[in-house]
Write a structure and sequence with these properties.
two-stranded antiparallel ribbon; single chain; 63% helix; alpha/beta; 5-stranded mixed sheet; 2 domains; 323 residues
């Protein structure tokens, strides 16, 4: 098993920066939900048990449950374990927003829940390939949420709008390894799900919110951000100190210098992410026309082709001999 280390070292069963396991799992779950939309409309909530355990052979699952309800498109992995090489006791919770047309027709029509599923499957695959060791970026998100909660409480006490700083912390969230991988991976599904014309693929990508977010981060000026922060929050020294030391885990006594260094790292990651998203789009046509097959099936087809070639050679020799 190969351990994931950095966002730019994700090379496990990957093509065009998109994990094939993520794609296959996404399609498996999405297609099952597609079939069950009439039941979901009737019951408002349904539970699918052992879908991954019984239908996915590349990774071993045991005791998986997928709980689906109507609502705003959202997903979360609420429970997950790694035991003896298996992903076990996983609970994937999804809420699906249906349009009026989808309610009437009782099936999904270019529904964005597929992107949500892709995002959650990305996290499941990360969990598997780290051998059940929670990726560092997951711990980062917990620390970030705690910091944001303290900051919001502080702003509420002094009746100050927390939005500006929260927008900055969201940039750090977007640039964590798991979010970069998820947003690159969901780019492919978005193009495929929306049935974008080949000539418009790149334009569609650059106009997506996800691409624009990373593009914005890549060109932001860290000095301007620092100045705006201090103009907005007079008490910000203590806030920035908590962010650098408790969230970033950088013990540099010069907190401004530490922040600038971390933000420059974000800018480089964001620029790389934009390139990868465009790489996904530029290779989409080739990928979409290729059948993604299990390696065992590929080996089987190669063997069949080899046998057919041998028979063809025998037939040609027999013809030459007049048989």
């Amino acid at each position: 098993m190969t351990k994931l280390v950095r966002y730019d070292e994700f090379r496990i069963n990957e093509r065009y920066h998109v994990s094939q396991d993520v794609k296959h799992l996404t399609n498996l779950i999405y297609n099952k939900i597609y079939q069950l939309i009439p039941n979901l409309i009737l019951k408002k909530e349904i539970v699918i048990e052992n879908l991954l355990q019984d239908n996915y052979s590349r990774i071993k699952f045991k005791g998986d449950r997928i709980r689906i309800k109507l609502g705003k498109n959202h997903g979360a992995v609420s429970s997950i374990k790694f035991v003896n090489g298996e992903v076990s006791d996983i609970l994937l919770e999804l809420s699906v927003k249906l349009s009026d047309n989808e309610f009437r027709s009782k099936y999904l029509i270019n529904n964005k829940i597929k992107e949500t599923i892709n995002n959650e499957c990305q996290h499941i695959i990360e969990f598997y390939h780290t051998g059940g060791n929670v990726p560092k970026s997951w711990d980062f998100n917990k620390r970030l949420k705690k910091h944001e909660g303290l900051f919001i409480n502080y702003c509420n006490r002094y009746k100050i709008n927390p939005e500006y700083w929260l927008n900055i912390t969201h940039m750090f969230y977007l640039c964590e390894e798991n979010e970069i991988r998820s947003n690159i991976s969901s780019t492919f599904d978005y193009i495929k799900n929306q049935k974008v014309e080949e000539s418009n693929i790149e334009d569609v990508i650059v106009n997506r919110k996800e691409y624009k977010d990373y593009k914005l981060i890549s060109v932001e000026n860290e000095n301007t951000i620092i100045n705006n922060i201090y103009r907005t929050y007079s008490f910000f020294n203590s806030v920035l100190d908590d962010f650098i030391k408790s969230v970033i885990l950088n013990q540099n006594s010069n907190i401004r210098k530490a922040f600038k260094s971390e933000f420059n790292r974000l800018k480089k990651r964001s620029s790389d992410c934009c390139k990868r998203m465009l790489s996904v789009s530029s290779n989409f046509i080739e990928e979409s026309n290729r059948e993604l097959m299990d390696p065992r099936l590929i080996d089987r087809n190669l063997k069949i082709s080899s046998i057919l070639e041998e028979y063809a050679d025998i037939d040609e020799r027999n013809i030459d001999r007049g048989f």
